[in-house]
Write a structure and sequence with these properties.
With about 350 residues, the chain is of the alpha/beta class. The chain has two domains: about 60 residues, 2-Layer Sandwich (Alpha-Beta Plaits); about 250 residues, Aldolase class I (TIM Barrel, Alpha-Beta Barrel). Helices cover about 35% and strands about 20% of the residues. It has eleven helices and 14 strands. α6 packs across α7. The longest helix has 17 residues.
Length: about 350
Amino acid sequence: MILIIKNEATEKSIIELQDYLADNNFFYEIIQGNNTKVMTVIGDTSLLDDNIVRSFDCVDDVKRITPAYKKVSRKYHPEDTIVEVNGIKIGGKENVVLIAGPCSIEGEQSTLYIAENVQKIGAKIFRGGAYKGRTSPYSFQGLKQEGLKDLQKVKTYFNMPVVSEILSIEQIPEFVEKVDIIQVGARNMQNYELLKALGKINKPILLKRGMSATIEELLMAAEYIVNGGNKNVILCERGIRTFEKAFRNTLDLASVPYLKKITHLPIIVDPSHGTGRRELVEPMTLAAIACGADGVMMEVHNNPQCAFSDGAQCIDFEEFAQIVKKSKLIAKAIGRDIY
């Protein structure tokens, strides 16, 4: 870590900073340039809070040489992390996995019907929301425990792993029992108490990027889970909020190859939430695979117009079949395959 010292800093203020660093077992060295004075800090600087360091009167700016996240960084863990779910390996150079299902679980009959069809077409993991965190309190909030029971039936009847979003710490026991991959939604990406709790369980976590989160903030959120002991984390790019109004979100596909470079964790893409538009799901799915995504998660419904939630971004079975067909060609072109 490099600290830029203010030109007008007093000797007393610098000594206060030096004492703070020494008390916390950090070594430091002051370098006087022609116009600038800097202090280099040596040690595990991930333990240093930038805001606390900036609070010292003598500090003008803080520059990190190494990232604040450690355990999710490829620099400290060069090998790819492979997350395995029911024999399906996600990450590294493994096959690309397709995850599909409705936005919301709508009942046993429709859930099983959709699961049967998406599995036949090519999905290996079923997605569906039992608890729905919605922007409006008047929107459909999910079937909750009944929805989780319907997801269990998908596992039983089709031997298909399921992923669903958790909303609170209190729900962890039932999710551990009934869900194969626990999804942390965009709104909960920085719910640090929830992340800490999920770090204590042995269950794959799908961590979605917050709608206004930087890549570093996403990785710091993942660090909470991994630091707690749970190394089975899958990152998910699901679009970020920008000034563009043509789409629900702006799908940041540049984040995929960049994340593959700086972290060992697998990353999947959600083009449904990433665009909010049905006609954009196919091209963004193909682009996601082309740029290295380890999986794609899509919202699929037998009748999107009648879906309980997010019907505008749901594709039907025919559209999903076309995406699967084209995805195999793209995967082959980059030396991979589709499960």
